[in-house]
What does this fold into?
Amino acid sequence: MDSNSNNNSNLSTNSNVKLTKLQKRELSKLLDKYENRKDYGKESKNPRRDFLHITEKNYPDYYHVSDSKFRLDYNAEMKELEKHGFIDLIWKKYQEGEYLEKIALQYENLEQAYSVLNRKPKIEYYRELEKIFYKYYKEASSNLNNFYEEMLSKLKHLQKLPAQVKYETPHEIEELLIGLNQLTKNKELEILKRNFSVELYRDSKRWDKYERRIVWIIKNYWSNKTDNKELDQELNQELAKPLKDHIYDIYMMEDNELLAEFGLIENPRHVNISGYMKFSTHQGEIDLVAFYPDVGLPPQMVKDMKINTLKANCIITIENLTSFYHYLSVAPDNHLVIYLGGYHNRMRRHILNKLWDFVKYQGMETKFYHWGDLDLGGFRIYNHLKEKTNIPFAPLMMDEKTYLYHIDNGHKFNKDYEKKLTDLLKDDEYSEFHNLINLMLKHKVRIEQEAVRDIVLPE
It folds into this structure.
């Protein structure tokens, strides 16, 4: 039976209405349902009401066979909420006062309901967020246009925001967008997370609260669009794709690799290198030959270095650390070897570009190679390396012969992995691996770099 009996006449008109925790929770649920209606914020309203259905599935304690305490307490608190004019109680037929069927929101007293919960109506909250998003949209890289434009559209039309973007307060939303915009601004040097957090929030740990959500936004919305509209048209490409489709495959990166791509790191990552090279900084000249089997160059040194001498027929980047030292054990003197560490970061790109510029300027015939895993990740890392550095790398020990020779040391892969490999066959950027990929699809085996024990040096 619907007990809608002009409850707004019973509403306490002062601010002394105090609700219990349970009453606040149930009233909040009803307001959530109200705000998630398709006709919310529109002049034309569907006459249906918003209910909480008191079913055994939703409220198991309410129907406890031997303990009626929860049901009796619940009924008493809901009756009190009804007296305040916030809800109507609908009882089960022939069980009025004993068992509730459902609870309905009272629309006449919505303003008071929001007030007693100290809650802003969704439409007011969204208008406030719209101003915040628009402010940071104007300051953001155009690579984030996809994200900001979609969020602004959702806010305008009062649509649900992704869970990764929702926070309790506008201030938290603002801090999220500050972190997103600042991370994606180009930086010459890498910066430590704690220092970055202090710069943004004056709190060394505040960044941790937003990091995973910012990474999610970048992975799902970052585009390959430039800041030059004429150039975008000239390229005649699909430049506004999410990252999962864009040429750098950042969508496939681990979170720490993606952050490093934007210069944000947990701790300083030295560049491990071995070979015959001399370079200078403002502190003097350094000869790599003096360090064996390798040396780790700090980021600032890589930034400041000027290459003076290079004696290398080949420059080899290597994906994994174990394989890096394995290669050094057999490498000839005229090989310069660099540990890449998965997807290369900004500092490794700095040194590779300096080497490439030196080779070109000196007219040297030095060749660049990359050795990585014979698997999906290895192919993506190789492609990312070529695209980001614009250096004509060639794969090393990432061929059919190496694959078949070490296949017994490989790992079987599943259907999902098989589909992702098959997709690379449709991409011309991976054409140099197409024969190998077909072989892998035949044997259903991938091989990690560490399993390749017999080093074959480039000719």
